[in-house]
Amino acid sequence: MPTVENYIYQLDGNQRKITFYFHDLFTRELNLMDKIRYKIPFYYAKSWICYLNPIKNDAIELVFIRGNELSNVQGLLDRKGRKQVAGITFQTIEEIPENAIREIIHEAILLDEMNPYASKNKKK
Predict the structure, then answer these.
(1) What is the residue extent of each domain of the chain?
(2) Residues ≥6 apart with Cβ < 8 Å to 48
(3) In the predicted model, what is the mean pLDDT of residues 73-95?
């Protein structure tokens, strides 16, 4: 099974820098667990919280699984027509608004702690 670190080393340039920044924040500082799912890195506690999706133009989209349930008081989350997930796209590490991102991440973690996500597709 490929590790997230191996995955990141296969990225280039800004995608690698941005992904390492978030990977370090999620795993070392916030103690989230990481796993490659659908060929990209996902981060979770009780349930999936977010994932890092490389997109064209050497950018990374930080996507929150339950973006539709987050307050988005920062005005950064973009649902792009999606029903559930919402994300923020970064092309350089310098453009990451650290305080606002931390607020969103902490809100997503709190939501997960209080009410872990349960897929509506799972059979009962």
Answers:
(1) 16-35+49-114
(2) 37, 42, 65, 117
(3) 95
